[in-house]
Amino acid sequence: MKAIGYRKAGSLDREDALIAFEAERPSALGHDVLVRVQAVSVNPVDCKIRTNRDPSGDTPAILGWDAVGEVVEIGEKVTRFNIGDIVWYAGAIDRDGTNAEYHVVDARIAGRAPQSISATEAAALPLTTLTAYEMLFDRLRVHDPVPGAAPAVLIIGGAGGVGSIAIQLLRAKTDLHVIATASRDETRAWVKELGAHHVIDHSIPLAEQVEGLGLGAPGFVFSTTHTHQYLESIAELIAPQGRFGLIDDPDGLDIRLFKQKSISTHWEFMYTRSLFGTPDIARQGQILDEVAGLVDAGQTRSTATENLGPLSVENLRKAHEMLESKSVRGKLVLEGF
């Protein structure tokens, strides 16, 4: 089968940073299904792994952890899907990725793809949806009010892939006020379009802006990027006994700032359930099924902002370049080979 990968970790400015090659088509065993890939999206984790992690074997490593495709083979333990079903998923970080013609995935972490949007539109959502959903509802437990706090969530980095779907999930599933940060006219308009009640500028101090909204101190803060820059502001603006969550990887995180307010801290890693085979691994498939329903009901929309064309080294390199520029709003998608 056709695939795109890399042989050695490093920067994108090398001619062989991404290469096309022929790989053996995998088979579906156990809980796995084999999927003919129809569309993928590209995430910051793709760039991070390509830069820092050498392939473990002699063959190139295949990146990509978002996909939509058709089930063409099922393992003997699979009861959830049939051949011909169209599924969507974010995969597992310890297995080969989706930048290939065929891909195997544990059926328990896959869901039935939405029927009302195209494969490329759907491919934008799984990884960011799982990240946002797990943070909001499994970690921060936003349905459980913080005593005395404003019924509000502050999302730092509202225009990125995770922020874009987090805004929508909050509007679809809660009555909380959604405050999102964005610093450019384009991104401010984007987060308002997605449903943010209030937009503030993360390039200037946050606490004063939140106070100026007149809502009170929010009970929840979800930081998707540059957390180290905002930690003092978060400690100042969040309500006592509030809940704080992050998904990025700051070099250091001094949560002593949170002690007096008894702020709980939650670090979301979307791959935890698949990496450790947790007893609730099927939770991810259930989340994706639920969100597919929200999409088909018109309560949530795709966050795809640019289709870069079919999977090719040239198009995938362009996607990595755009992500590394850190100016992308929403998600970049590609069609299958």
TrEMBL record:
Q: Which UniProt keywords apply?
A: Metal-binding, Oxidoreductase, Zinc
Q: Which residues form the Enoyl reductase (ER) domain?
A: 10-334
SMART domains recorded: PKS_ER
| Top-level taxon in the UniProt lineage | Bacteria
What molecular function does GO assign, one term? zinc ion binding
InterPro entries hit by this protein: ADH-like_C, ADH-like_N, ADH_Zn_typ-1, ER, GroES-like_sf, Lipid_raft_assoc_Zn_ADH, NAD(P)-bd_dom_sf
Family to which the UniProt record says this protein belongs: Belongs to the zinc-containing alcohol dehydrogenase family. Quinone oxidoreductase subfamily.
Among NCBIfam families, the record links this protein to:
adh_fam_1
The entry's protein name is Zinc-type alcohol dehydrogenase-like protein
Which species is the source of this protein? Altererythrobacter lutimaris
